[in-house]
Design goal:
Elements (H helix, E strand, L loop, with lengths): L20 H18 L5 E9 L10 E3 L5 E3 L8 E3 L5 E9 L2 E2 L5 E4 L2 E4 L16 E9 L5 H16 L12 E4 L2 E4 L3 H7 L5 H11 L19 E2 L2 E2 L8 E7 L4 E7 L11 E6 L8 E12 L2 E8 L1 H5 L4 E9 L4 E10 L7
Parallel strand pairs: 14-20
Antiparallel strand pairs: 1-9, 2-3, 4-8, 5-6, 5-9, 7-8, 10-11, 12-13, 15-18, 16-17, 16-19, 17-18, 19-20
Helix pairs in contact: 1-2, 2-4
Length: 349
C-alpha cells in the first residue's frame, strides 16, 4: 500500500492474548495487503503531495513578473486557472501553496478532480527547470466501508495461525480432502485469485459488496499511436495549444481508425472541423496520396480526435512512408505526423 495511507481497522475474531506483538503486526500487515489488492487498490484514503507547473504556452500567454516579483501567466488567464489532480476520487484539499504562499480555501475550489483558482486569477507559472510554484497537498481514495475491520480480522487470524505453525484456511494447492468417507473438492489458489475470492465467508462477502465480480482496477486504454503524458512532480502536461507530432501505421487495405486525445483540448480550442491530408513529403506542395476523415468530440475537458480511412481509401494508398497534418478549419495546424503503410505479408509454412 502507498505510504501516507490510513491504517486499516482490524477486529480479531480469534484469541490474541499472550501472542507475540510482532506476529500480530505481521499478520495484520499481510491481511490488509491481501484484502487491499483483491479489492482493487481502491479502498483507504491516502495523503498525496504534488507539485504542478502550470502551462506557460501561447494558450496561457507569456509569463511575466508582477510588481511583487512573482511569475504570472499573461494572456487568457481562464486557460490557466485549473490543474488536474492525479489520484482519485479526491476526498479533501489539505493545503494549497502557490508561489510559497499558503492560500485560504476561499481562493480555490475543487471541481471533481480539478482544482480551480477562483476570483479570475491564474496559478503562478514556473519554468520547467525551476521548482514547482504550485504545491497541493490532498487526500484521495475510498473511505473504509462497513465490515472492513471484520474482513481484515478474519484473514489476519488465518495468517496468524500459519505464522504460529498451525492450520490455515487460506487457499492451498490441495484439490480434495477425504474425511470419514466424505470427499470435498477444493479450488486451487489460482482459482481463488482469479475470482478475487479467498474462501473465507466474511471476507468474500465484503469483497463482493466492495468490488463485485468486475475488474479489480479502473480500465485504461493504451495505444502505440498515442503520445505519452509526461509527469512532472505528479502533474501531467496538457497537450500543447497549437501543435504535436503523432506516428501512425497500418497494413495496406485495412480500414484505419486512430485516436488522439488532446488533454484539456476544450480550453485550448481544439473543437471544430479538420482537414487531414496525407502527402509524400512534409511540404504542403507535395503530391497527395489520401486524406483522413477527422471527427473532434468533447470528452469532458478533453477533445478526442478520430482519424478514419475506409477500406477502399486505405487500399488506394501504396505501401511506404508518408506525412500528414491536421489543420483546423479557420485555425492552425494542430497536429502533424508520419504514416507508415505496411505490406500485408503472408508467410507460407
Amino acid at each position: 500500500m502507498p505510504a501516507g495511507c490510513q491504517e486499516w481497522p482490524i477486529a480479531w475474531p480469534c484469541p490474541t492474548d499472550g501472542v507475540d506483538p510482532v506476529l500480530l503486526a505481521a499478520a495484520a500487515d499481510l491481511a490488509s495487503q491481501l484484502v487491499w489488492s483483491l479489492s482493487g487498490h481502491r479502498i483507504g484514503v491516502c495523503t498525496y503531495r504534488e507539485g504542478f507547473r502550470p502551462a506557460t504556452t501561447a494558450g496561457c500567454g507569456a509569463p511575466y513578473k508582477d510588481a511583487s516579483g512573482n511569475w504570472r501567466n499573461g494572456g487568457r488567464a481562464g486557460a490557466c486557472c485549473r490543474v488536474l489532480l492525479s489520484f482519485r476520487p479526491v476526498a479533501s484539499i489539505l493545503e494549497v501553496r502557490d508561489g510559497g504562499v499558503v492560500l485560504p480555501s476561499s481562493e480555490y475550489a475543487l471541481e471533481g478532480s480539478w482544482l480551480r483558482r477562483r476570483g479570475g486569477a491564474c496559478w503562478t507559472a514556473s519554468f520547467p527547470c525551476d521548482d514547482p510554484e504550485l504545491i497541493v497537498a490532498y487526500q484521495a481514495g475510498v473511505p473504509f466501508p462497513a465490515g472492513t475491520a471484520a474482513a481484515i480480522g478474519e484473514v489476519a487470524c488465518e495468517y496468524l495461525a500459519a505464522l504460529q505453525g498451525g492450520q490455515c484456511r487460506l487457499p492451498s494447492r490441495a484439490t480434495s480432502i477425504t474425511r470419514q468417507g466424505v470427499t470435498v473438492t477444493l479450488d486451487t489458489a489460482a482459482d481463488f485469485v482469479g475470482r478475487r475470492r479467498i474462501g473465507l465467508p466474511i471476507t468474500d462477502a465484503w469483497l463482493e459488496s466492495v468490488a463485485g465480480s468486475g475488474p479489480r482496477v479502473a480500465s485504461k486504454v493504451y495505444s502505440p499511436d498515442l503520445p505519452r503524458a509526461i509527469p512532472i512532480s505528479g502533474a501531467p502536461f496538457a497537450v500543447p495549444a497549437t501543435s504535436g507530432t503523432v506516428p501512425f501505421s497500418w497494413k495496406q487495405s485495412d480500414p484505419v481508425n486512430k485516436v488522439v486525445i488532446a488533454r484539456d483540448g476544450v480550453a485550448h480550442g481544439w473543437l471544430g472541423n479538420y482537414q487531414a491530408q496525407l502527402r509524400e513529403a512534409p511540404d504542403s506542395s507535395a503530391p497527395l496520396v489520401g486524406a483522413f476523415t477527422v471527427t473532434a468530440i468533447a470528452d469532458g475537458p478533453d477533445v478526442r480526435l478520430d482519424f478514419v480511412l475506409t477500406e477502399a481509401e486505405s487500399t488506394a494508398i501504396p505501401t511506404g512512408s508518408y506525412y500528414w497534418d491536421a489543420q483546423q478549419e479557420g485555425g492552425p495546424t494542430r497536429l502533424t505526423g508520419t504514416a507508415d503503410v505496411l505490406a500485408d505479408i503472408t508467410v507460407l509454412v
